[in-house]
Amino acid sequence: MKNKKKDLNEFLNENCKCFNKGSSLEKLFVGISEACKSVSLLTANGEISGVLGNLKSTNVQGEIQKKLDVLSNDIFIECFLKNEIASALISEENQDPIINKYNSSAPYVVYFDPLDGSSNIDVNGSVGSIFSIFEYSNNSNNMLIPLTGNFQIAACYAIYGPSTMFVLSLGSGTHGFTLDANSGKFLLTHPNLSVPEATHEYSINTSNERFWDFPIARYVRECIAGASGVRDKNFNMRWTGSMVADIHRVLIRGGIFMYPKDSKKPEKAGRLRLMYEANPMAYLVEQAGGRASTGKVNLLDVVPDDYHQRISVIIGSKEEVERVERYYVENLEGKDSKYEFPLFKERSLFYKTE
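-> structure tokens emitted (354 positions)
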């Protein structure tokens, strides 16, 4: 007889007690998980529900919105406001924060991406929802000041794939729950996730190669060279176009995920958003023993200057992230001049012979 798996509600009841307002935090996560079930059902039904395809509208980032982007955003906002489980919300889909009149029994700020990887929706690829939780201190002018990721009290994401999973950290390890279709409950299937320090997998959008900073190019070229190069082992490249899916793979079996700043749009500090993509994923991975960086500083130390700030993201197995960080230091100090690649010297992929 199989051992009975603990469900999410039981886990929260046991692990939220150490918080000052444990019952309200428990209620917050129950609300988030229930809303994720609704989004999971919509994504599973796909075209049957008429939720595929684009809208004519764009979000705050200037990106064309998918129907499911907007539907998911509405589901989560209704969940937070109707159940009065958060005092303020910041969504990728909304320019300004939604202040839900400060509630002393639910003093939380929730930053969230309602549907990450939405370009995968129409091709039936994995997508997800990401949440970052901060305490909200009431103040006289009702100003909401974004804080560094180190001030997060919890983070979570849902991934809608072959199965729906809910992965969270309350600051003591990272744990994964799988949605049981029979009971409708999230069951603890992956307790205490641990990211291996070393890896043989990397994840990056190689179509941007010509725009990369030299340290990123150096790292990826060494991975491509594999056992015949300085790394003395072969690597596999994996890329889904969904941060949730790529980070989930890192949490399950290790790897390094990179979406660095590049010269394609030099005015931008990166592609991903700090507050509701980078911060929560950095928190979850570091709680599982991994590392998160911009390449130059720890992601959780970055002081935000905007709710929708973009940032360079390098997250994953500790040894690999530290190697990329070392390459940035060597580049800054001019110690990497001997590492040259044809792509960055000539218009050809090959060196010119004398």
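The longest helix spans residues 22-45.
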